[in-house]
Amino acid sequence: MSIKVKGFLKDVGGASRVTELRKKSIETASAVPDPVDNIRAVADALHPDHMEFRVTAVREASPTSRVYRMVSTDGHIPVFQAGQYVNFRLKIGQSELTRPYTISSAPFDARGEQGYVEVTIRRNRPYLVPDWFFENVGVGTVLQGNMPFGTFYYEPLRDSKNLLALAGGSGITPFYSMAREIAYGKMKGVRLTILYGSVHHSDIVLGEELARVERDCPEVKVVHVLSGDEGWTGEKGFITKELIAKYMGEDPTVLFCGPIAMYKLVEQAVTELGLTCRRFRHDVMNQPSDPAQLAGYPAGNKNKVWKLKVLRGIHEDLIEARGDEPVAVALERAAIPVDTHCRCGECGYCRTQLLSGEIFVSPNGDGRRLMDKEMGWFHACSAYPVSDLTIRIPIL
Ligand SMILES: Cc1cc2nc3c(=O)[nH]c(=O)nc-3n(C[C@H](O)[C@H](O)[C@H](O)COP(=O)(O)OP(=O)(O)OC[C@H]3O[C@@H](n4cnc5c(N)ncnc54)[C@H](O)[C@@H]3O)c2cc1C
Ligand code: FES
């Protein structure tokens, strides 16, 4: 106790000395602002507003997916965690689009003089942005964007060192990044087991790369679970409660990244296994291509086309907005720039003011603050028009 009192008195004494020192430095300070702002420079290096990525290699990661390796044109790649994403800013036709892609390489790959990041993009059906990548992006292409974003990464203060990853489709990318980082010895004491669900073995993304990490690193185990491959001799079917129980080990943190349909099955399984919210986390998920899958989505709205009045500073545009697409997509289609990052309602970058009309907000990731809800703000990436609307957005 006496130590605490002494420490307290020392702090009080110290505070008065600091006040004196501050007074002196204010009195002797120059009236002209210091042109070198070191703190700003560090902040900019950690979170640059804008980056340029030059593609240096492209390779296949499965019959339907490609890995794009990129360096930063100014040589600096900000520090990031395995599981975070790059947000690309793309011009496709007249539209300026932003799209997130998880960094599938390890943070350690980005360090040093030859530092790089990789994204793995899947095109298993016609898609706007993956189609554009596959058809337009090759070695030498310069892409605009920035990084790092996202909160889906291992946090030692919160997570168990025993990680069980549940992945589907391109949802393997954050876990491949983690696996590589573990193999580099950069996530000390962490063990990672990946249950990776696919239909057929040819659907597995980064299959050879995963096999290599597993072979080289005893802390990483990969279990493929195939639901439609007759000849498969490994685990079959979907990722069930029984499979999770079989592989989860002692006191795991379960991490999920995959499609919404898979999430629903997995969420029920982990709940039945008695895992607490703290021990079950999922990455952000895109809105489903069919919003009728969303609980509460108004029947009959899917085929409607609404009028959307968009106010931006002194600009006023009147555009169409389909009932089956989020408001952000209507803006993108009309070539009105809108800043999106997570595209699932979580981050708030696309925060928009609703001046009139009605919207349906997706229950998947309504990350608005209570005050925003009450004051008529919404996230355009995860809200669907259900009447004609008037909205106000910032000018980008
Ligand atoms: C955090 C995060 C990380 C991700 N990481 C990965 C990853 O590692 N790998 C991966 O493959 N995917 C990843 N994704 C998904 C990825 O961001 C894309 O959503 C995905 O590749 C599909 O592309 P798309 O959005 O163009 O799809 P689409 O479904 O083709 O398009 C999206 C919307 O744009 C609309 N649209 C159509 N035409 C136009 C037009 N002319 N102008 C404007 N809009 C139009 C479509 O109707 C649709 O509503 C990630 C998503 C998130 C949220
Ligand atoms: S882009 Fe993140 S909330 Fe809309």
Quick rundown:
With 396 residues, the chain is of the alpha/beta class. It is 25% helix and 30% strand. The protein contains nine helices and 19 strands.
Description of the structure:
- The chain has helices at 2-28, 38-46, 128-136, 173-183, 207-216, 241-247, 260-272, 327-333, 370-374; strands at 51-62, 65-72, 85-92, 95-102, 117-122, 142-149, 162-168, 191-198, 220-226, 235-236, 253-257, 280-282, 305-312, 315-322, 351-356, 359-361, 377-379, 383-385, 389-392.
- The protein is an alpha/beta fold.
- 36% of the residues are buried.
- The structure holds flavin-adenine dinucleotide and FE2/S2 (inorganic) cluster.
- FE2/S2 (inorganic) cluster is lined by residues 340-343, 345-350, 379, 381.
